[in-house]
Amino acid sequence: MKQQNSYGYDTTERADKNSFFISPSFIDVHVHFREPGYGYKETIATGSRAAAAGGYTCVCTMPNLDPVPDCPENLRRQLDIISRDAVIDVIPYASITIGRKGLEVVDVAALKDSVVAFSDDGSGVQDPATMLKAMELIAQNGCILAAHCEDNRLLRGGYIHEGRYAAEHSHKGICSESEWGQIARDLELAGKTGCAYHVCHISTKESVDLIRRAKDKGVNVSCETAPHYLTLCEDDLQEDGRFKMNPPIRSKEDRKALIEGIIDGTIDMIATDHAPHSAEEKSRGLAGSAMGVVGLETAFPVLYTELVRKGVISLDRLIDLMAIAPRRRFRLPLREDDRVVLDLDTPYVIDSSTFLSKGRSTPFDGRQVWGRCMETIYKGKTVYKR
């Protein structure tokens, strides 16, 4: 039985023979595949296979690499690896600034035809004048600027949310304003320049409200959040590096606002911010572990279990957030022969030891979920099958 969402796409169908669910494949506009430069954490080969195992046939890789893709020569190194090793579409970001140092804007025109957008992800652009110039150049070239919003002046050594858990366990906290303060600045600049502005991994209630009001004013803005922000809050934290990411898991009130944002359309899409690290780098607890968790192989089942099965949003809305809206915003094709086959009826327990990603650190390890990916079809060919 086919269904059609409010945008007119045929989104899902039930496969009568085996009762599995067939959907357009997913797209993740925010992943870290670590290559070139940090292949011990993840490679294009392992990351793209992990993505396929999660139902994705297109991912967009962030530029915190070595070398940084800030010029055609550096970008070519990444593109060559993608051409050789990727099993799905892997489309890179170029950095906003040279070396991701926040000082000098890259040559946008020289890079734009080979990338999905421009981002300094992992770092916020601290200087307003630099961000203004970047938005002007990116707008002139008809591209998208995707911003990691973080004011370094407000971090003060923090590494989890500045809230109840941090206070009770003597941890240094990251205040919400470090995120939403830069969003407020950038929304003003985007309104002035007309730049297509995308906000990465929002986590606070203030961020949702700012973006909602900017959309009402006609600012060309979109945003994403991640599964862990929609399904966890500081009450779920444990003294374990698998609960540490940037931005951090925040309060129950922030989670509620994010859910309201996906319901009313303020939040356009869900991205995983898949950020693998080595086991050793994630073994140092909340204070000492590297920031970042993996998410490609757990995103749909976690969201289907926590949001759809519990009646928070419809399956159609979840498919839009993970498959349709990201392609629409980033002008990427939705091919009829890119599909994912899902088992919505059989529960299973997430076991990170079975992941195809090199990364094993997930806050959802051991959780019972529904919605396992059974097969991923890319350009008409099976690239993953259980």
Radius of gyration: 19 Å
Tally of contiguous helical segments: 12
What can be said about the biggest beta sheet?
A: 6 strands, antiparallel
Oligomerization category of the chains in this entry: single chain
Secondary structure: helix percent: 25-40%
Intertermini distance: 24 Å
Structural commentary:
This protein is an alpha/beta fold and about 375 residues long. It is globular, with a radius of gyration of 19 Å. The model is unreliable at about 1-10 (pLDDT under 50). The strands form five sheets. The chain has a six-stranded antiparallel β-sheet. It contains twelve helices and 17 strands. Strand 2 (about 10-15) and strand 3 form a beta hairpin. The chain has helices spanning about 45-55, 70-85, 110, 130-140, 165-170, 175-195, 205-215, 225-230, 250-265, 285-290, 300-310, 315-330; strands at about 1-5, 10-15, 20-25, 25-30, 55-60, 90, 145, 160, 175, 195-200, 220-225, 270, 340-345, 350, 370, 370-380, 380-385.
Tell me the layout of helices and strands.
Blueprint lengths: L1 E3 L5 E6 L4 E5 L1 E6 L12 H10 L2 E6 L10 H14 L3 E4 L15 H4 L16 H13 L3 E4 L12 E2 L2 H5 L4 E2 L2 H17 L2 E4 L5 H12 L4 E5 L1 H5 L20 H13 L4 E2 L14 H4 L10 H10 L6 H15 L9 E5 L4 E2 L18 E2 L2 E7 L2 E5 L1
Parallel strand pairs: 4-5, 5-6, 7-10, 8-9, 10-11, 11-12
Antiparallel strand pairs: 1-2, 2-3, 3-13, 13-16, 14-15, 16-17
Helix pairs in contact: 4-6, 6-7, 7-9
